[in-house]
Amino acid sequence: MSAYEDSMDQLPEPTDTHDIPTSHGSIRVYEWATDQNRGDTPILLIPGRATGAPMWVDNLENLVGERRVLAFDALGDSGRSQQTVPFDSFADQAHPIDEVVSELAPEGVHLMGHSFGGAVASAYAHQYPHRTVTLTLLDPAFTLGTPSPDMLWWAMVVSLPGLPEAWRETALERVGGAEINSEEVRGDPVTRLVTAASAHYQAALPQPSPLTDDQLDRLEMPVYVALASRDSMAGGPPALQRAESLAQSTVKIWPNTTHSLPMQAAGDLEEELLFFFEDHDR
190: part of which helix (H) or strand (E)? Predict the structure, then answer.
């Protein structure tokens, strides 16, 4: 939690902080809004594993000045949300998110998820299409396809309890695509958060599976898919083909990026997404 609070200090100051009671526990939601954009369709950010809202530190500065933004800590993962009821299936994670949307943005959201957050966002979108104005998937894991055996191995190693620190750092580097074994990077609050959460918090969440063809067909809203150019967790060429088969898809392979695409493409990514959201506002 020390690493979490240090990471939150790097974010723009939220205009509101909410603890929303849901059917599966209390969800901590941070909100950024101005008098000018408070009535706009907000962006709802769904984080990857072991990161929570602080993972968006590199992206928020460019988003909050333009649009209302909501970011939360996932139930059943490290952060300020408190799960009280287990999930029977992966798809169940969509229901408490809809309770948050019902409370804070009943007219709908621009939904954005990274990694496992992309899988959660997709589960929400095909169950609650009427509230998903657009769907953005940033190198989503177990959504359009299954990661390569190599990436699956390193992702499994990250979550193993009792690993020597050097082994865990190597696994995090392979999954995240960025070196963390330097003093400067190790001192970064978000890096400390991910390392601490991976080592000391064991999530007990259902494993996602790639969407079926029927579920993909239900994603009729505009969908933006950003894929990493190397060390992707999205599933390679088959995932690219499935993304391009969506009814209203915009698909881009971002050069010089890995699974840490939101951080590595920060700046250019938000500019492109803001145009995408504006084009498809209700």
Answer: helix 189-200
